[in-house]
Amino acid sequence: MLAIRVMADLHIHGRYSRATSEQMSLGEIAKYAKIKGLNLVGTGDFTHPLWLKEIRENLAPEADTGLFKLANVDSPVYFMLQTEVCTIFDYKGASKKIHHVILTPNLESADQINERLARFGDLASDGRPILDCTAPQLVEEVMAVNADNMVFPAHVWTPWFSLFGASSGFDTVEDCYQDMTKHIHALETGLSSDPAMNWRLSGLDKYALISNSDCHSFWPWRIGREANAFDLPRCTYDHVISAISDNDPERFKFTIETDPAYGKYHWTGHRNCKVSLSPPEAIKFGNTCPVCRRKLVKGVEQRVEELSDRPSDYKRPNAPGFKCLLPLSEVIAAVIGTDSPAIQAVWKIYNALIAKFGDEYTVLMDAPFEEIASVVDVPFAQAIIKVRNGSAKVIPGYDGVYGQLTLDVSVSVIKAKPLATPRVQQRSMSDFC
User: Fold this and answer.
1) pLDDT tens per residue across span 45-93
2) Among the listed residues 9, 431, 2, the one whose alpha carbon sits nearest the alpha carbon of residue 220
3) 8 Å CB contact between 180 and 140
4) CA–CA distance, 213 with 13 (Å, rounded to integer)
5) Strands 321-325 and 252-258, sheet pairing
6) Which residues are paired to 186 by β-bridges?
7) Is the pTM of this model over 0.90?
8) Exposed, middle or buried: residue 237 (CB in 10 Å: 0-12, 13-18, 19+)?
């Protein structure tokens, strides 16, 4: 049987989550998922009563799949019931704040999960509710509803609200989930780390490393910026969950990662003082801001260094691969010389490429240089290929500031200037030595 390529973003948010676009409807999610090249997305926020109502009204179950599609609309995009929750609890005298993603195959299970979790917090307060329970309690409650449910920790390296977070996390998966660790089969890498960084911890070898956008808007520079590629007999809930749980590279082919330097917490730093430091630099300053002397926000790269027991070039054998990319809109914006991927000049170029190649992933991963250059000016084709082959440079993000893509491409044939300086004038160790 020929396999079907499934491109999946399994962690998004609906309109009732904080800092989420009010236009975030299921119809718009499906529209832009298709443009991106996704054919499977999470619903986001099924724990929120109003969003769950919209799910019931706008999605219809696809027979024998455990998935859903837009009702009465011809769309190739499947939806998987998904939500994110936050647990806050004490562990050995320290407060722990962990985000988790929950997947479930049907509305009956979603209702039962909601009924159980409502005992720990107000589910209507936010699309990502805060629950007064421990991580093991959460997993126990979810798995008691349906053995086919899946729970995995979200963006595991983010300084706040994550499993390995430097601010309020743990040093091991087992410390976090305790006797419920047996139900944890996957970890979400987050924007500021990639699989290679996670391979450095031998204790993570048993877990699949998955990537999702955690998007709060449907725009193509958000949805699908990180995703998972599967080759499956059919696009079904069971096949996806099995491929992840088994961490099978024959079915779980690769993840799409943003360059981890692009993530908002890759390096250690202090946004208010515009200080950005690599791990050795941060350690030299005692993790203290050299400007204001306050504690720095420890970046993901430094946190990985603290917990790793393998060299940086270690490659886990028989693991799914990964591709480091950046959203096409961001690449175009960098060539034009603008901070905003939402301006008309970016959309004009973006739409021309989608019209030619069908979706964004095809442009980023597969379209030949000559064919791209036949549609748009050469500097844009050069930039896309640089991102594809890993030769584009990214100034690392830090303390909530996204990384900065820098490109060395000819701009003589377009009426624009390159973005010569980063959006935030970062200060590095050389400024203080």
Assistant:
1) 999 999 999 999 999 999 999 999 999 899 999 999 999 999 999 999 9
2) 9
3) yes
4) 10
5) parallel
6) 208
7) yes
8) buried
